[in-house]
Design a protein that fits this description.
Blueprint (H helix, E strand, L loop, with lengths): L2 E3 L2 E3 L1 E7 L3 E11 L6 H12 L2 H4 L3 E8 L4 H10 L6 E4 L38 H13 L2 E2 H8 L3 H13 L3 E5 L6 E8 L2 E7 L7 E5 L1 H10 L21 H7 L1 H8 L4 E7 L12 E7 L2 E9 L6 H22 L2 E8 L1 H7 L10 E7 L14 E2 L4
Parallel strand pairs: 4-5, 5-6, 14-15, 15-16, 16-17
Antiparallel strand pairs: 1-2, 3-4, 7-11, 8-11, 9-10, 12-13, 13-14
Helix pairs in contact: 1-3, 4-5, 4-6, 4-7, 5-6
Length: 385
């Protein structure tokens, strides 16, 4: 049952014995790694909820339980919460044998357990199915997007995503915005073989639907992430605010691109425009899953070709080096992918070298959706070879 401290709400609470000093007042936050948020944004929710605990509950601590496969997501949440002034433990959903070693710092303790905090009712989440909620969460993060973008980020096929999005519109959690239609121009008269011929100019047809969350829909998404009303949460949004462009469409469709290119890969989650704490370079998109039996990050760089070949080389060299060090530090494998035109791939070739055996590099043509070379660990494979 959820509990309240001031204006903050946690999923549950327990008095946790912390020998030999006494007891700590432990507030539990349940986190799903497939809830549409990258780990840095979800960790920010926890930070927002803890600020009142030191004031209102002496001896308080926070226990974040991450529900999901692998280790990377929980490690990133723990890394992001490092330095929080209150003791925080980040674990899986299974209770460790000893919590003493799980806390970021020794929690404040009290001689006897505190009384239980007030309980509150669970927030109503609009009677949405799990799949519909997944689409709504994606919308709340990207703010607007096409059907194919939302389908890719939520892990559904386009037909199912369209059906789910329409159900959100019916419940007033989202609205759809059609591509504009060019109005028909007046008839033109042209001269052919000495005869005047009238020719009509029909307007262009609609090509796609774009979707946006309503204020009501965003509110439901925020509650589903555990954030109480009246809490400001701009960190949920994409790291950058990209305009509708080829670059944005490729970044947002990255999980679907992966699944089509490598059907044997298990993609657990994926996000576009991800912020990674401590890195000066962040991926255009990041997917997390399993490949060849190992937990793997799939780091995407999309290069439009507006820079010179020299600048592309310099940029890719720096980002590959940072991505490799980042993955090695967290104990996961890395597939580093560059999508661009053939000349961009060729220009980047000299920079894509010297990789460890736990890293693979591939490039692909950004106009060929779902096509990528076969991955070989410790090697570079270009899509133009």
């Amino acid at each position: 049952m959820p509990v309240r401290v001031g204006t903050s709400v946690f999923h549950s609470w327990k008095a946790l014995e912390f020998p030999p000093a006494g007891w700590t007042d432990t507030f539990i936050f349940s986190m799903q790694s497939d809830a549409g948020l990258p780990p840095d944004a979800y960790a920010e929710v926890v930070k927002k909820l803890t600020w009142q605990l030191n004031k209102l509950r002496r001896g308080a601590s926070v226990w974040v339980q991450v529900d999901g496969p692998g280790m990377w997501y929980g490690k990133e949440v723990r890394r992001f919460l490092r330095g929080t002034p209150i003791a925080v433990a980040v674990t899986g959903v299974d209770v460790p044998q000893s919590m003493n070693e799980s806390f970021s710092l020794t929690p404040h303790t009290i001689p006897i357990p505190s009384g239980a905090p007030p309980q509150v009712e669970e927030w109503p989440l609009g009677d949405l199915s799990r799949d519909a909620m997944a689409c709504l969460r994606v919308l709340a993060r990207i703010q607007d997007g096409s059907t194919s973008e939302i389908a890719a980020l939520s892990g559904f096929g386009i037909d199912l995503a369209r059906k789910l999005l329409r159900s959100l519109v019916e419940k007033e959690y989202a609205v759809n915005i059609s591509d504009f239609v060019t109005p028909a121009k007046p008839k033109q008269t042209i001269l052919i073989g000495g005869k005047e011929i009238s020719r009509s100019n029909p307007g262009e047809k609609k090509k796609a639907l774009f979707w946006q969350p309503t204020k009501k829909g965003i509110s439901i998404a925020l509650r589903s992430w555990g954030l109480p009303p009246d809490y400001y949460f701009p960190e949920r949004k994409e790291f950058r605010t990209p305009k509708d462009s080829r670059h944005r469409r490729r970044a947002r469709r990255w999980p679907a691109w992966l699944r089509k290119a490598w059907p044997h890969v298990e993609v657990w989650s994926g996000w576009s425009e991800v912020y990674i704490k401590g890195l000066k370079a962040t991926p255009d998109a990041l997917a997390w899953g399993q490949m060849d039996g190992s937990e793997t990050l799939f780091w995407l760089e999309v290069e439009s070709g507006h820079s010179s070949g020299q600048l592309i080389q310099k940029k890719m060299s720096r980002r590959l080096s940072q991505a490799s060090a980042y993955a090695e530090n967290l104990g996961v494998r890395l597939v580093f992918v560059l999508l661009g035109m053939p000349w961009v791939q060729e220009a980047a070739r000299p920079a894509l070298a010297g990789i460890p055996p736990t890293v693979a590099v591939v490039t692909g043509d950004w106009n060929k959706f779902g096509e990528l070379p076969v991955v070989e660990w410790g090697k570079i494979r270009l899509g133009i070879d």
